[in-house]
Amino acid sequence: MQTRSILVTGAGSGIGAGIAAGLAADGHHVIVTDLALDAARAVADAIRAAGGSAEAHALDVTSDDSVAACIAALSRPVDVLVNNAGLQHVSKLEDFPIGKWNLLIQVMLTGVARLTQAVLPGMRERGFGRIVNIGSIHSLVASRYKSAYVAAKHGLLGFSKVMALETADTDITINTVCPTYVKTPLVDKQIADQARTNNISESQVVSEIMLKPMPKGVFITFEELTGITAFLIGPAARNITGQTITVDGGWTVQ
After folding, report:
1. Where along the chain do its domains lie?
2. Which among 18, 172, 217, 224 could bridge 167 via Cys, Cβ 3.0 to 4.6 Å?
3. Coiled-coil intervals in this record (predicted)?
């Protein structure tokens, strides 16, 4: 596979950091971006210490100015965009602060459109591009108390399908990977939030809410998501576009 320049959002921790490290280990140059520059730098430093190629940049996907500044500062053009930045808030809609609701939509839906819009002209000019959106099982199903997250992740699928049609005239693809729970700091916080909201123990949240719907009954790993992303950006997947890659341990086949 040809070495690519890959920009990963929300790569200062969790899924983004795992995918960045995994793709760097495959020989790609990784652009580690995060709202927290120190976190992005730590991930990039670790990649370089392991022999990989990486650079770090601050990026707020809710800001036009931040996106423009980040793209202008890059050492090389973006061949692959991995839209991963995300956050969660667990609350009944009646108690859900609308400002927080809007923030989730801005980061996980509008922010995806903003950054995709920024990199598409360069991809078209070079005649190649791959966009991988990190969705969720909640792109496909719903859970109580996650109205903003579920709305954003559902919207991501529609956005990806439209962009697949708009980029079908060149060698650009866009797909959405939809995993169930991955053990990350974000999920650890969700466990605590769900325990409080549902008035059950954290172990019950894991067994009864997170893993029970999955016949496989295990958390998804960074290695799985890295491998799927690597496939989607490779030559064997050049005609896979606008698709939803569901990684759910059998959840939605029931």
Report:
1. 5-180+221-248, 181-219
2. 172
3. none
Position 70: which residue type? C
Q: Could you confirm whether 181 is annotated as catalytic? A: no
**What are the CA-CA distances from residue 26 to residues 142, 154, 174, 196 (Å)?**
35, 31, 21, 41
Q: Of 149, 159, 181, 251, which is the active-site residue?
A: 149
* Residue-level pLDDT, tens digit, the chain, 254 residues: 689 999 999 999 999 999 999 999 999 999 999 999 999 999 999 999 999 999 999 999 999 999 999 999 999 999 999 999 999 998 999 999 999 999 999 999 999 999 999 999 999 999 999 999 999 999 999 999 999 999 999 999 999 999 999 999 999 999 999 999 888 877 888 788 888 888 899 999 888 888 999 999 999 999 999 999 999 999 999 999 999 999 999 999 99
Rounded-to-integer distance, Cα 239 and Cα 218, Å:
31
